[in-house]
Design the sequence.
């Protein structure tokens, strides 16, 4: 963390750097144990170097911050927490690998990491090391402990207090209450050999080393066990150079189907913001036909004519074509917000069309009220008169 802080502060665009290690004790916090959060506050853009952009700055920081065993994910703090709460994935796009064995899940994740890291749109890929935890075990010999009149709880209590500390009193300073904890000095608890020499008091008053009633040793195991839909799960995080998540997933999924061989009982699925895109597509397949049907039904109820209702539906196609051109010119991808605005645009297009038709009907009725014969020229003039009255409001809209 100190080296990372030093590197980040070397950029003139950086104002402050604040890092956190670990996670909260809450079971609702789905952050992994090996996750490091670093919040970078940038200076105002007018103080940046000439020609420096946000994208260039991220690339420069990513090139400098390369540490073995770690991968970088660049995102906004609130967006990161929302993504993790909603999908569990802390990056915009990721994979969830599920199966019956954590070690095999980790192997599959490492294979996926090797395959996807070669793609040009991939900035970084990191598969969780779900089975590479490191634990200190205290295995109590129940028979030996019973010979000294000790129970398993007695041994565990000593380990808990001597290593983790135990509150023995409380210091009162005005309205403040500060607990007083006691535990062994660092030299007496920093190695298994030192812990083996920790003393346990027996009911007879004797003090015996813990290695006479228990074995203290290191072992490997899962660093964190994830369970989703009743299956063990491992995550693969992807940091991309593109915002076209749908296109990337299609290409990456094709590549995985060609090169990845999964054993029976193991599956993977895409997650992150791409999950929202899939859900949105499924919902839009239902919502859009309903929207057009409701619009047509309301128009038919107003004008009592299926032909006029159909004519008024056509402007939505022109409105969408204009929206697509502008979207292409600005380089925006399709998203939930974009589709919501298209639906609103359909409503506005139909609304202005309805008002235009009303004005055209009024102009035509005015011609008929004059008592003149309705020739083709009269109808054309009535159309022009009605359209001109509505031209300025339509242009404003």
Sequence:
């Amino acid at each position: 963390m100190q080296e990372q802080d030093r590197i980040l502060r070397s950029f003139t665009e950086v104002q402050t750097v604040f890092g956190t290690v670990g996670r909260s004790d809450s079971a609702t916090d789905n952050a992994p144990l090996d996750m490091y959060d670093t919040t970078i506050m940038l200076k105002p853009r007018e103080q940046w170097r000439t020609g420096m952009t946000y994208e260039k700055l991220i690339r420069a920081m990513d090139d400098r911050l390369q540490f073995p065993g770690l991968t970088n994910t660049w995102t906004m703090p609130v967006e990161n927490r929302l993504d993790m709460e909603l999908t569990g994935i802390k990056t915009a796009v990721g994979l969830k690998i599920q199966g019956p064995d954590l070690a095999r899940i980790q192997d599959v994740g490492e294979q996926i990491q090797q395959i996807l890291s070669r793609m040009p749109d991939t900035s970084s890929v990191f598969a969780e090391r779900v089975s590479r935890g490191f634990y200190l075990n205290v295995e109590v010999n129940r028979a030996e402990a019973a010979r000294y009149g000790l129970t398993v709880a007695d041994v565990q209590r000593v380990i808990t207090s001597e290593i983790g500390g135990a509150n023995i009193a409380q210091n009162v300073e005005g309205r403040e209450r500060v607990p007083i904890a006691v535990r062994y000095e660092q030299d007496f608890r920093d190695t298994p050999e030192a812990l083996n020499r920790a003393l346990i008091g027996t009911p007879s008053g004797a003090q015996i080393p813990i290695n006479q009633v228990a074995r203290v040793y290191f072992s490997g195991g899962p660093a964190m066990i994830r369970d989703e839909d009743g299956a063990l799960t491992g995550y693969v995080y992807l940091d991309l150079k593109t915002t076209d998540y749908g296109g990337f997933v299609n290409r990456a999924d094709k590549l995985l189907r060609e090169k990845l061989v999964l054993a029976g009982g193991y599956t993977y699925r895409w997650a992150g913001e791409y999950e929202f895109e899939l859900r949105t597509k499924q919902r839009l397949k239902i919502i859009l036909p309903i929207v057009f049907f409701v619009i047509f039904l309301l128009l038919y109820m107003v004008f009592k004519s299926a032909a006029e209702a159909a004519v008024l539906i056509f402007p939505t196609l022109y409105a969408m074509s204009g929206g697509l051109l502008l979207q292409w010119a600005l380089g925006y991808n399709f998203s939930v917000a974009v589709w919501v605005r298209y639906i609103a645009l359909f409503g506005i297009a139909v609304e202005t069309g309805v008002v235009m038709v009303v004005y055209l009907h009024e102009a035509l009725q005015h011609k008929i009220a004059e008592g003149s014969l309705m020739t083709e020229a009269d109808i054309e003039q009535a159309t022009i008169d009605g359209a001109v009255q509505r031209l300025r409001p339509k242009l404003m809209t």
